[in-house]
Amino acid sequence: MGVLAAVGVLLPFPYYYWLWTNPQSWVNLCGKGSDPCKVMAYVSHFLKLLQFISLFSVSSFSWPPPLYFWPLFGFGQFLNVRVYRLLGESGTYYGVRFGKSIPWVTEFPFGVIRDPQYVGSILSLLACLSWVPFQYILLWSLGYVFMIHVESKEDLATRAKLLS
Residue 164: what pLDDT? Predict the structure, then answer.
C-alpha cells in the first residue's frame, strides 16, 4: 500500500503543473460556455479526495491529538479559508492563467505570508504528524513546494484567452 499511497499523495501535482504551463489547452478542453476555474475546482476536489484516501490508508489515529495539532491545524485552515474568501474560486483556481481578470489582493495574509494557501496546507499537514507517517507528509509538502516554485515563474505570454 505504501507505493499506492505515495502515488495518491502526488497525483494532483502533475495536473496543476500542466494547467499552469498549458492554460490554453485547458480552456480549449473545457470548451465554450464552461468556466475553466469551476471545472478545475471539480477535478481538484476529486484529486484531493484521492489524496485523503491515500493518507488514511497509511494512518493510525489516536485521540486526543497532541497539543501542537490544534494551533498548526487551526492556523493552517484559517489561512486556507481566508485565501479562498479573498480570491474566490477564480482567483484560487488559476483564473488569471485562464484569461480572467482577478483583482490584486493586499489584505492579510497577502503581503505578510508568501504563498499563504500553500503555507496553510503545509501547516495542516504537519499537524497530522502524530497520525500520518512522516514520508507521506514530506512528499505532499514537497509537492506544494514544487508548485510554489512553478507558480513563481509565470510567463505572461502563455496566459490563455477565454473562449467566447
Answer: 67
